[in-house]
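Q: What would this chain look like folded?
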Amino acid sequence: MDRQPSPAPAGMSQAEWQQRVDLAACYRLVARYGWDDLVFTHISARLPGPEHHFLINPYGMTFDEITPASLVKIDLEGRKVAPSPYDINPAGFTIHSAIHAAREDAACVIHVHSINGVAVSAQEGGLLPLSQHSMFVLASLAYHDYEGVALEDDEKPRLVRDLGDRRFLMLRNHGLLTVGPTVADAFVAMYFFEASCTIQVRAMAGGTPLRPIPQAIVERAPAQMQAVTRGSGGALAWPALLRRLDRLEPGWRN
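A: My prediction, written as structure tokens:
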């Protein structure tokens, strides 16, 4: 049975608290799956309301330390809108603020420097149709060329342009990015993205000819994914992932 949401702290809306719980869970799960990069990647989630506030990780915490209360609340200019002793990652702010400002449907943005994701991002051919996982990604995949560490505001329009209306973005020589209408959907998208890259790296390392999936089958993937995952997969998988965290890390919500 799914756990009932915990009550919000005094002075905080239940909607904000639930977003904090989901985002903290996402950070913990990214650490458990080994997609974190010490403290140098980032996940953000927009808060409900017209203010365009969003949550991001406290810079310097490892992902397995993050709790709902420790997340930093900022606006689209990178200014804190609630007290916090922590700074934020400036590169994280550049990437995430650009996407949140441009995509109303991107309530959550996940960016990782996973080893296999970076490896495939450095391959000229990018992600190949080699697995069932990759079909789901290829249906909504875009690419963005590397411009150095993402610190400059003038990169934002190109980043937004390259992402377009897609859910998956491969940052060349850099890593992977997913967006979703919920934290759960963005996380499941990243699971498929990273799994696709891992499978590709291992298949290519086998040293034998590869057998790509025919394009006609790839084109049917979006409808098939909707049927299998009942949408984007988040609503189906997320409650079970939260139950796993509760079993393995009982204090993560505190």
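The first strand starts at residue 42 and ends at 46.
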